[in-house]
Amino acid sequence: MTDSKASPPEQITDRLFATERNPEDFRFDASVARVFPDMIRRSVPGYTTIIPMIEVITEQYAQRGSHCYDLGCSLGASTLAMRHGIPYQDCTLVGVDNSSAMIERCEHYIALDDHDLPVTLRCEDLLKTELSQASVTTLNFTLQFVPPEHRLGLLTRIAGATLPGGALILSEKIRFESDREQDIQTRLHHEFKRANGYSDLEISQKRAAIEQVLIPETLTEHRERLLKAGFEQVLVWYQCFNFVSMLAIKTR
Ligand code: GEK
């Protein structure tokens, strides 16, 4: 593993939900893009472990002359981890996000990074983005924002574009089949947020804003759909509370 520059340099504190506000659905606009590194680090348990591991996994599955994709790249933390993990100069790396506020800032962070593998950024819907000859594709906490009825189609397209021996890194917030486990894991997640300085008001307002747009599914639903989409092997390589990262491998 190289000395990755995956973390953006400056971090502006997320106070978006600190004062009482009218409930409206969460959007990846300029105000979110501005505080995003701080927001995701303090909200997603395991995020700061997952990013450097994306570099390690990419190094294992990248293939000469192939394409690597980071779908829902936001400010490019996983794109940069992939960039540092790809061992071949003839690979191409593509980051895709449909938020122009995210892509504008992402360009800045890519330019600050010291690696020389070119990165192409596409400001477009990942459901429409062109995919081919893929060795490593990353969906790091992105599929959860795709409407559930489009998820199988997207994963089938990714599996179809993946070369034998290639892989998909899929990180998601999940829900649990047992209500009891769901309650415990949710409580632990909220304690993680409290420990990171979020107030009860911030936690409840963010929850209300995001629950219409972030639709979590169970591990069984993810696993079965990945197999149906055309991946032959699915494993969980990381879990912290209700946040999981899976590896789906195309063996042939
Ligand atoms: C990271 N992967 O730091 N097309 C393109 N982009 C989309 C779409 C879509 N249909 N839907 C959502 N997005 C990043 C973090 S954040 C996760 C990913 C989070 C984008 C959206 O604009 C946002 O930038 C990203 O997916 C999700 O490793 O905020 O919890």
Describe this entry's structure for a reader:
By secondary structure, the protein is α/β, with parallel strands linked by helices. It has 8 helices and 7 strands, in the order H-H-E-H-E-H-E-E-H-E-H-H-H-E-E. The chain has a 7-stranded mixed sheet with strand order 3-2-1-4-5-7-6, with helices on both faces. Helix 2 packs parallel to helix 3. Mean pLDDT is 92; it is low at 1-9. It binds ligand GEK.
Quick summary:
The protein has 252 residues and is an alpha/beta fold. The chain has helices at residues 30-43, 47-61, 77-85, 100-112, 148-161, 179-195, 200-210, 219-229, and strands at 67-71, 92-97, 119-123, 134-140, 162-173, 233-240, 243-249. The chain has a single domain (23-176, 211-249), classed as Rossmann fold.
